[in-house]
Amino acid sequence: MDRRLAHSDLILKFDMEKAYDRVEWPFLLFMLRSFGFSELACSKSCLEALHDFLLLYQEHFGQKIDVGKSAFLAPFSISEEHCRQFALPNQILVALGRICNSFLWDLNVDSRRVYWAAWEKLCFPVQEGGLGVCFFPDSAMAFACKSWWRLRKRVSIWAVYMHRKYIKDTHPSITMMDRLPASWRRLLAVRDFTELRIRWCLGKGLVDFLYDIWCGDLSLAQELGVSNPPHSLVVEFFTSQGWNVPLLREWVPEFVVQRIISIHFSPDQDDAMVWVPSPNGDFSVASAWEEIRQKRNVFFVDRYVWGSIVPLQLSKAGYGCSTYFLEEAVAGVANTDASVLNGRAAGGGALRDHCGRAIFAYYKEFGELEVLEGEAQSLLVGLRMYAKREVRSLIAESDSQVLVQLVGSKAVSKWPLCIVLREIRHFLSRMNASLLHVFREANSVADALVSLQLRDQRCYD
């Protein structure tokens, strides 16, 4: 090639090794299977047609297929892992519910029977009149919350990738983009819900000062109504002697400063994410589902309908009868509550029908009473009002377990509480009513009425 050289030329031809030449093919096959592909056996005619197509492809494009590195992969049925990692279309979730309902009520695939209840009405705990199964959309949302939790912890390759690809230099709670991929839309659907249930236990202080929730039940940006605040880490407000109070006062009001300086931090430890609904602070799908799902009042009949010792056919019949005749059997559910503030007791309550619709509510103050006496007086006032309105077959609920036990045990009790208890028992017997204990979360309506502190008696029809 170069005529000035005295010796013959030497030509070197290199085939540069590319990334796909160094990859481990078993790993690629494993990843394809994880994303919903598997080897599928086809008929002889299908394989011959595919073979002819590949030969035609090589002839026209001048490329040769490496048979040793090739495999035939096809989509397969939906698995539980697929449901956890990807958002299923609503049409599939609805179809799954219909299949489950058909399995429960129909004799076989050819005969259809009367459905006593829709599938979504059965997706409740047994104590609330359900089958103890989860509603598919609620489960999908709970798994999406798990994905957001893992994104915020940043302990996986996927979380690091999502931060670098979509979040970048912004905070996850305010990240916005024009063209949203499906994976990010799934996370956005649960972002606000999940963020409100995440708290930060301070260690090194590498959490956002305004956007993360670390000194209350809301982020400081939400609490103070700050729009587009600058990003700053909590560690920037630390000094070797403690909190930098002058700097804090430049950023937040004095009442927030006093709250912050009472918080202990440990610079020698890592910051810890805490999941509020969980007893141990770690995220669990069950606790997320419990926060997401719709809740119903607990009826004493429900816990006996679906039981392990009751045959399934009897349970079906019992559920149908209880659902059909509940409106006639139970006139309503009455919740009562009381509180003592500065030595003065106040009580309130609400009456709802079997569907949960409000019928009547009241509020009254009783003067200087103890908590138990206030609870009893509030219940008695409600029973008197319901009796005046000729309410029958009532279920009364109170979050005072002591009061429920006293009424049920028919104990005399102390003076003058014994007089109130005797009158409560009289009204319960006269109205064919029962008194049940519920937790405070199920008594939130009555609790909200008591907290009004209206200073005079009110009735809401």
UniProtKB/TrEMBL annotation:
Domain RNase H type-1: 335-451
Pfam families: RVT_3
Signal peptide region: none
CDD domains linked: RNase_H_like
Xref: PANTHER family: OS05G0353850 PROTEIN, POLYNUCLEOTIDYL TRANSFERASE, RIBONUCLEASE H-LIKE SUPERFAMILY PROTEIN
Protein name per Swiss-Prot or TrEMBL: RNase H type-1 domain-containing protein
Record organism: Coffea arabica (Arabian coffee)
